[in-house]
Amino acid sequence: MTSKADALLFFQLQVNSATVDGRTALTDACAGGHVTCVSLLLQHGATPHGNSPSHSPIHWAAAKGHPECIEKLVQYNADVDQHIDTLGSPLRVACSNQQLGSVRQLLQLGADVNRSVSGDSPLHIAVRLSSPEMVSDLLNHGADHLLVNAEGKRPLDLTPPDSRVGRLLREAGGIQIRATE
Questions:
Q1: Tens digit of pLDDT for each residue in 65-116?
Q2: 62/96 Cα distance (integer angstroms)
Q3: Where are the annotated ANK repeats, by residue (predicted)?
């Protein structure tokens, strides 16, 4: 390297280099919640979509609960609904990992609340995990409480009748809740 320009050119060529299993510096920075590193890498040409289906930066940020990294990736044109066959969307991943901050960020950024993999929508997942906060946020962003999964079940079918999650779903469906005696 003979100059700063050469060093920057070399760095830009290397910024998207991946390990044998497809991890990049951006993927690792997102998984670790290092938003300053994420920003620097993106500014120097890192691809926000990742180089490998199993190592999408936005999926890792969603799974590990780093909404600031998600926001930065989307500023650089990452797709909030990027689909990976084995994982689904970032919203589904955030729900599966009970990362409420990531769920809220993805919803705020316009993620498709009804996208599903194998029939389970993000709402089905939140219900299975008995997360009233997540269920409420998903419903408030238009989650379809009548969507049927691959097992032929609606989210309400997956919850005990007296649970807080069940009450939220019944209210969303306009079903009257009887007072218990």
A1: 999 999 999 999 999 999 988 889 999 999 999 999 999 999 999 999 998 8
A2: 10
A3: 21-53, 53-85, 118-150
